[in-house]
Amino acid sequence: MPAPVAFLCLGAMGGPMAGHLARAGHPISVWNRTASKAQAFVAAHGGRAAATPADAARGAAVVFACTGDDAALRAIASGVDGAFSGMAPGAVFVDHTTASAEAARELAAEAARRGLEFVDAPVSGGQEGAQRGTLTVMAGGSEAAFLRIEPLLSAYARKAVRLGPAGSGQLAKMVNQICIGGLLAALAEGIRFAERAGLDARAAMDLIAHGAAGSWQLSNRAPTMIERRFDFGFAVDWMRKDLGIALAEARRIGAELPVTTLVDQRYGELAARGQGRLDTSSLITLL
Question: Are the CB atoms for 233 and 281 separated by under 8 Å?
Answer without folding.
Answer: yes
